[in-house]
Amino acid sequence: MSKPFIAILKVFIIISLILAIIVSFTILIKHRINTPNTTEFADKIPIEEEQIIGIVIGYNSQVKEIQQILKNSNFDPGPIDGRMGNRTRQAIKKFQEAKGLQPTGKIDEETMLALNKEKT
Q1: Is residue 89 in some structural domain?
Q2: What is the pLDDT of residue 33?
Q3: What is the rounded CA–CA span in Å between residue 103 and residue 67?
Q4: Which of 89, 100, 104, 118 is most buried, judged by most C-beta within 10 A?
Q5: Contact 95, 73 (CB under 8 A)
């Protein structure tokens, strides 16, 4: 190959790399502009019951503590056995209604905060 051809080839490669970098940054910038900042919405993403108190199938020490708080607050959860049964769900629902929370019968962040306030 001749020297002028190699020189032109090197220039072509350098220009191609520069263009590739420019296109990549353009795509990245467009993507960032069109993608919402997830930290802005982190407080709006609901946390599931399992993430708050763990698995509720079978015995769960946190369920037992919740049952005791409910009982002490005059919401009958049934036996204080650490099992999330129908009576405990109904007691949670009634507690939520009394506290002005959405009555789902499940433990969410707001319900857990309200229960913890009852504990003190």
Answers
A1: yes
A2: 59
A3: 17
A4: 89
A5: yes
Domain residue limits at 26: 3-35
Phi/psi for 36 (5° steps) reads -65, 150
Is 60 exceeded by the pLDDT of residue 4? yes
pTM over 0.85? The answer is: no
Q: Which of 88, 98, 106 is nearest to 52 (CA)?
A: 106
C-alpha to C-alpha distance for 113 and 119, rounded to whole angstroms:
10
Distance from the Cα of residue 20 to its chain's centroid: 37
Residue range 38-77, pLDDT digits in tens: 555 555 667 889 988 988 899 999 999 999 999 999 999 9
77 within 8 A of 70, measured Cβ to Cβ: yes
40 within domain boundaries: no
Both 31 and 53 in a single domain? no
The answer to whether residue 28 is domain-embedded is yes
Query: In 3D, which of 116, 95, 98 has the Cα closest to residue 106?
Result: 95
φ/ψ (deg, to 5) at 103: -80, 85
If asked whether residues 31 and 62 sit together in one domain, one would say no
Do 18 and 59 reside in the same domain of the chain? no
